[in-house]
Design goal:
It contains five helices and 14 strands. The two termini are 20 Å apart. The chain has helices at residues 36-50, 62-67, 72-85, 192-198, 206-211; strands at residues 5-11, 14-19, 25-28, 57-60, 97-103, 105-108, 117-123, 130-134, 139-142, 147-152, 157-161, 179-188, 216-219, 222-223.
């Protein structure tokens, strides 16, 4: 059975429908390591204020980080040049950007909040034996400093231990450095270049979009649930993580 994912997202004051792309663009960019005092500041913030637990993804203060991060502009420029080489216009300066942290991440998608965007992420942490996993395709991307990805917010993903078959909190003990810090930009999914590069089809189910009142992702014409441990969608027979 073919698995057809549909994202219903806000376009102005109305919901619009579109396909969910399984295209994931990835590369490894040459960026300098964040300075030691900035890394220490991030660790304190995660421990003292975010209360970051295994599987959580939370925002770090970007404005404060930029004051202690002399190479921030160089990191942004590296991502801008990479995305332009992929066929995307210079969108980064026009897009919302955030600094995020996680201690691994359970399987989830972001189509219920960010259906109108694709994510562009730049990972800043060293290799800690973790992969960014997309269960719908089986793609696993080793996370190292400079890993860059662009993907559809409706596509399920997780940060899991390398070699594991799914999300397991036991893979991330509290006495082990498991944190990942990354920059993320929201690329407008309705931008023609973003749609072309990701292969998005628009207005795939307008009648249903007119009946809904919030963003969501459906599978094969019906709402679906996503298992946070395996990435399997309720009622489907998707292949297990590879």
């Amino acid at each position: 059975m073919q698995h057809v994912l549909t994202s219903y997202f806000w376009s102005g004051d109305a919901l619009r429908s579109r396909s969910v792309s399984t295209v994931v663009l990835t590369g490894t960019l040459q960026i300098p390591a964040p300075p030691a005092r900035l890394l220490a500041d991030w660790e304190r913030e995660m421990a003292d204020h975010l209360g970051l637990e295994c599987g959580d993804v939370e925002a770090l203060p970007l404005a404060r980080a930029r004051m202690r991060w002399p190479d921030y502009a160089q990191c942004v420029q590296a991502v801008a040049e990479w995305t332009q080489a992929l066929g995307l216009p210079d969108l980064l300066g026009q897009c919302d950007v955030a600094l995020m942290a996680c201690r691994s991440a359970r399987y989830h998608h972001d189509g219920a909040q960010y259906g109108g965007a694709a994510f562009c992420n730049l990972f800043l942490s060293e290799d800690k034996g973790q992969d960014l996993h997309f269960p719908d395709t089986g793609l696993r991307i080793p996370l190292v400093r400079g890993t860059a990805v662009v993907f559809d917010t409706g596509l399920a993903h997780a940060v899991i231990a390398r070699g594991s078959r799914g999300f397991d909190a036991a893979d991330f003990p509290p006495d082990q450095d498991c944190s990942q810090v990354f920059l993320t930009w929201e690329l407008p999914i309705e931008d023609s270049a973003v749609g072309q590069v990701l292969g998005i089809a628009y207005d795939t189910d307008t009648p249903t979009a007119r009946l809904l009142d919030e963003e969501q992702v459906w599978l094969n014409g019906a709402p679906t649930q996503l298992c946070p441990l395996t990435g399997i969608r309720t009622g489907t027979q998707l292949a297990p993580p590879r």
